[in-house]
Amino acid sequence: MFRSIIILITIFVIIIAVSYNWLYEFYTVLGYNRPNIKPYENGKCRIIGGVEACEDIHIHHRTGYAFMTCGNEIKRTKGYWPPLSTYNSNIQTKDTPYIYDINNDKLIPLVLKNFPLEEDFATHGLGIYEDPENENKLYLFFVNHKRSGSCFEIFEHTLHTNELIHLETIQHKLINTPNDVVPVSRHEFYFTNDHYNNNPTYKHLEHILPLSWANVVFHSSITNETKIVAEMRLPNGITSNLDHSLIYVATTFGYVLVYERNKYNNELELKDKIFTGYATDNLSVDEETGEIYCAIFPKPYMVVAAHGKELGYAPFVPTGILKISNNTERDNEKYSLKPIFEDDGSLFQLTTIAAVDRKRNTLLLGSFRSKGIVRCNSLEPLI
């Protein structure tokens, strides 16, 4: 009898401890107690007009070309775009990817070749792989939220041209709620499913319940293998270091996960788990320093409020960028976390990517539903 009571008390204490940790993290990430964000006024960042709803940006550092998945702000919120739980199948989406030439401050729309006119092209995450045998040839991997089911579209691009030549479409039952993608070869890539469920009601439950139902998936067209390699709660952006030995995954509820990649079987082993305290979206890794630039939502409950209002009448939603570096201070923390950009939403809202280019001392900010992109001529524009 006494032993049973001890076991029950132990179980109760464990449940309380786990619940406390989860509730603390949940409350922290929601940002209710976070001070109000002020307008950005340091003058190091400006809007680049002519595009909108550029959810993801990847910079080809040798050329200074930033490849961007841009769309239409109205269609993001009124058409068919599952990430926002908008399922109006009467509207076809044909997004136009862009290059932003950092050196010449110029936007270049990209033309899709060999891509069926009747097919949807509703972009989300983006990954780039450079051909190791031809430095002028890139392969671009796009998340495409087609009305017939989400998939990946792979294109070939020759640098200094404006064409994307469609090569193939990848579909699979594990491509469920794809968010972002990182290729590790011409025929292999990892991607995040940001939810387990497609149903909007069940997706909202995943935001509340501390369940690791979503996942990271590896796909190989070489071996015809598609498999789950990690499970977690609400993964979002995914990227890698230069040699693809480390895979970084952001989660919507406050973590950046660092995985070591086994190049022989493509399994992932968790190396570090960094609590950012913020709802974290896409990631960009500085190839020279290894620092991680995270797009964050300081007050994500305001993002929810903005979704429910007509465009033009939504409240300003604060936005920010967090930099994760190796900690050089004399304490027990392995990483230092530093906000390097904050804005109350009056300059830019809902930042989903901060692409870093150290060579040109430039940060590029994109958003899934804001007009334009932001160019910062500083890697720490708050200073």
UniProtKB/TrEMBL annotation:
An example molecular function term from Gene Ontology annotations: metal ion binding
Active site as annotated: H124 (proton acceptor)
Keywords: Calcium, Disulfide bond, Glycoprotein, Hydrolase, Membrane, Metal-binding, Transmembrane, Transmembrane helix
NADP listed as a keyword: no
Record carries keyword rRNA processing: no
Residue stretches spanning the membrane: 5-24
Name of the molecule in the record: Calcium-dependent phosphotriesterase
Family label: Belongs to the paraoxonase family.
Superkingdom of the organism of origin: Eukaryota
Glycan-modified residues: N282
InterPro entries recorded: 6-blade_b-propeller_TolB-like, Arylesterase, Serum_paraoxonase/arylesterase
Residues the entry annotates as binding Ca(2+): D56, L126, N179, D180, N236, D281, N282
Cofactor requirements of the protein: Ca(2+)
Record's comment on post-translational modification: Glycosylated.
Cofactor binding mode and count: Binds 2 calcium ions per subunit.
Alphabetical list of Pfam families matching this protein: Arylesterase
